[in-house]
């Protein structure tokens, strides 16, 4: 069930409530952000691609003051930061956030997204004819025709609050526990909606491909982060991811990815030469329901 935002004229967003006061605000096929509302304020966990303004969507869901909490500094998670005054990020990401998104990534992403949405058309045709499984939150959004390297801008934003492992973000009657979970990026955090069985996983856990291949990734560090989460997996019954078409999973995904990452680190998982979505050379270890990308060997 998707809630419509009056300003969402072209249906870019897919919004649904995961729990009372916890919403997924997805740009399907691209990235998902999440909104958690307390009694005094709300936390917007990531701000999306910056292709469409996210603030009108947020304001259609809550009237409370909003604190942006970035799970990490990557461009696809901070695109709407500039629409808000209060921004928190892990202390390891503060400098990178203030440096701004690398425009080098925007061009390759445009090429990737156009090819991906084109390929998705075939799946939509098959689904309409035979399967009838495709829900709105999994219908890949086509980039606006006018969007190009010159017109897609992600304004620089400055953090107003630096986060550390163990911090608690009090929203009034509801709180987010901050856990540093580096590996995908050095500043990666996950957020535990305390006492409610919900873990907002950022890019630490993902379906599809798990990126341990970017310049600030470290697969050994990611493996240690995932081991720590998997050891407490029974704390959560709902885990969110940010990418690909499945962005809500169960805690079993933490356990499966911890085991897979251990195999990659131990060198027991076969590694194939592959390309990441931006065309960079990587090696890929494939598992049931996801794969893990690590840097190329040379
Ligand atoms: Zn990322
Ligand atoms: Zn991401």
Structural commentary:
This protein has 298 residues and is an alpha/beta fold. It has helices at 55-61, 94-99, 106-131, 219-230, 252-266; strands spanning 14-19, 22-27, 31-37, 42-45, 66-69, 86-90, 161-163, 168-170, 175-180, 189-193, 198-200, 208-211, 238-240, 248-249, 272-275, 281-287, 290-294. A hairpin with a 4-residue loop joins strand 3 (31-37) and strand 4 (42-45). The longest helix has 26 residues, at 106-131. It is globular, with a radius of gyration of 18 Å. The model has no long low-confidence stretch (mean pLDDT 94). Bound molecules: zinc ion (ZN) (2 copies). One zinc ion binds at residues 72, 74, 184-185, 203.
What's the layout of helices and strands?
Blueprint: E1 14-19, E2 22-27, E3 31-37, E4 42-45, H1 55-61, E5 66-69, E6 86-90, H2 94-99, H3 106-131, E7 161-163, E8 168-170, E9 175-180, E10 189-193, E11 198-200, E12 208-211, H4 219-230, E13 238-240, E14 248-249, H5 252-266, E15 272-275, E16 281-287, E17 290-294
Parallel strand pairs: 4-5, 5-6, 6-7, 11-13, 12-17
Antiparallel strand pairs: 1-2, 2-3, 3-4, 8-9, 9-10, 10-11, 13-14, 15-16, 16-17
Helix pairs in contact: 4-5
The structure holds zinc ion (2 copies).
In a nutshell, what does this entry contain?
The chain is an alpha/beta fold. The chain contains 5 helices and 17 strands. A 7-stranded mixed sheet has the order 1-2-3-4-5-6-7, with no helix packed on it.
């Amino acid at each position: 069930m998707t809630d419509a935002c009056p300003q969402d004229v072209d249906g870019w967003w897919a919004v649904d409530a995961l729990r009372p006061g916890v919403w997924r605000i997805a740009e399907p096929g691209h990235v998902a952000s999440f909104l958690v509302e307390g009694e005094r304020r709300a936390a917007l966990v990531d701000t999306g691609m910056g292709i469409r303004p996210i603030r009108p969507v947020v304001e259609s869901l809550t009237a409370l003051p909003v604190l942006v909490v970035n799970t990490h500094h990557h461009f696809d998670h901070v695109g709407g930061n500039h629409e808000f005054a209060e921004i928190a990020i892990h202390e390891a990401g503060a400098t990178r956030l203030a440096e701004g998104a690398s425009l080098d990534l925007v061009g390759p992403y445009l090429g990737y997204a156009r090819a991906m949405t084109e390929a998705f058309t075939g799946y939509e045709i098959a689904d309409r004819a035979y399967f009838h499984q495709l829900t709105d939150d999994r219908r890949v959004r086509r980039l606006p025709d006018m969007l190009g390297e010159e017109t897609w801008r992600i304004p620089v934003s400055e953090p107003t609050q630096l986060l550390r492992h163990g911090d608690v973000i009090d929203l009034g009657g509801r709180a987010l526990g901050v856990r540093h979970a580096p590996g995908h990026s050095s500043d990666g955090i996950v957020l535990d909606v305390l006492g409610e069985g919900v873990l907002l996983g950022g890019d630490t856990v993902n379906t599809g491909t798990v990126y341990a291949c970017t310049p600030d990734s470290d697969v050994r560090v990611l493996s240690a982060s995932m081991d720590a989460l998997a050891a407490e997996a029974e704390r959560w019954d709902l885990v969110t991811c940010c990418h690909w078409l499945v962005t809500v999973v169960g805690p079993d995904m933490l356990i499966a990815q911890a085991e897979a990452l251990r195999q990659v680190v131990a060198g027991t998982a076969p590694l194939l030469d592959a390309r990441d979505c931006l065309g960079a050379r990587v090696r890929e270890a494939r598992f049931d329901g996801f794969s893990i990308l690590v840097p190329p060997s040379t």
